[in-house]
């Protein structure tokens, strides 16, 4: 029986990975899934994480817990983003190692790459330039997570892997008006504007930045795909000091194009304006996904279908949103 701990199982990605692992277990796979919510185990608490890892000694850990938010949250709460993420990563990765955990999957982010870098961004672009200032603290913590995994692998022979997702969205997302990412923020804003019959909706920034959006179902599938890869295949496609793998669709669109897709889906027919006083962040963020596609994985959910599904989820869960 393989015992797998999902850190962050109540988050958007963690709950999707949990659902997929539960389905595998129900289908007869010999796995036991371990979870703890924040009240039971604060992952920034080193002693608590040590106790948990020593007591439970899982066979594998999926690190999907993090302090997460959009451009405004990153820019407004930089201390929380760097401190909490560094603490969670150090605690989980080191205490997993100390408890003899051989297998771990760390979820990073595409914001680890320099602000001005050749597009699409290859894994080799890591640490080749200056980061985007609005999310530098979060990106530094995510880079530290990759380097923690690599360092334990190099010194101790563990099998700790890292995946770098592009911008994610889907059921279970955070729809907070200020602190969320753009896609859920705009679903909410356009929905409310359609309901109130507002004449216009304003986007933050210029609407010209380009982003790549991956549905959370695809992200959860990719995470399990990478975790399940035989070690020789993972190692042959990576290197000890450049071991992370990009996860995305390989396709990007502008924020204005995204807004038009969302407006059409929620039935908003008014004007779409921009607010250049708000930050654009990185102007383009598109991942080179050839490393993962060469190993046999590709995304499946189209952006149009994903927006439709996410809006449906939003309508059904409006009263119970987490923010
Ligand atoms: N969403 C996105 O667009 C992207 C996400 N990622 C990465 O993917 C991973 C998953 O993100 P996502 O699912 O979107 O994020 P969510 O915010 O939806 O989930 C994060 C989870 O981590 C938990 N958590 C945070 N801090 C602690 C803590 N101190 N102790 C215990 N639990 C904690 C949260 O618990 P609680 O429920 O109690 O708040 C939550 O369940 C993260 O590593 C993120 O950085 C990468 C790129 C893009
Ligand atoms: C996943 C990723 O998420 C963050 O980086 P980001 O890609 O900039 O993410 P975002 O979704 O917040 O914005 C994307 C673009 O959209 C524009 N935009 C318009 N209107 C709204 C709006 O209403 N809300 C938001 N949030 N953005 C808006 C916004 O100005 C920007 O140009 C980082 O935290 C980073 O650390 C990270 O990993």
UniProtKB/TrEMBL annotation:
Pathway: Nucleotide-sugar biosynthesis; GDP-L-fucose biosynthesis via de novo pathway; GDP-L-fucose from GDP-alpha-D-mannose: step 2/2
Pfam families: Epimerase
Catalytically driven reaction(s): GDP-beta-L-fucose + NADP(+) = GDP-4-dehydro-alpha-D-rhamnose + NADPH + H(+)
Binding site for substrate: 189, 204, 211, 280
GO molecular function, one term: isomerase activity
Residues that coordinate or bind NADP(+): 8-14, 107-110, 142, 165-168, 181
Entry keyword set: Isomerase, Multifunctional enzyme, NADP, Oxidoreductase
Record-marked site positions (Important for catalytic activity): 109, 111
Cross-referenced InterPro entries: Epimerase_deHydtase (IPR001509), GDP_fucose/colitose_synth (IPR028614), NAD(P)-bd_dom_sf (IPR036291)
Family as reported in the entry's similarity comment: Belongs to the NAD(P)-dependent epimerase/dehydratase family. Fucose synthase subfamily.
Protein name in the entry: GDP-L-fucose synthase
Species per Swiss-Prot/TrEMBL record: Novosphingobium arvoryzae
Gene: wcaG
